[in-house]
Amino acid sequence: MSEAQAARDGDAVLLDEIARRAEMPPGETRALLHDLTRVHRLVTELAGVDTPDMGPRWEAKPRL
Question: Which residues pair with 43 in a beta bridge?
Fold first, then answer.
């Protein structure tokens, strides 16, 4: 996810792009992103930020 985000100049990334770069199925990628978001709190999920809505995007949380 961080490679995909870096390639977009730090912008949040859609699930399909993360899955493609990771060479993983979207369902498995979504499960891992869920863990990174809810369990480890390393990633932020952005939902409903696009017009039209393209689905959630994810970005790494800034490190202190």
Answer: 60
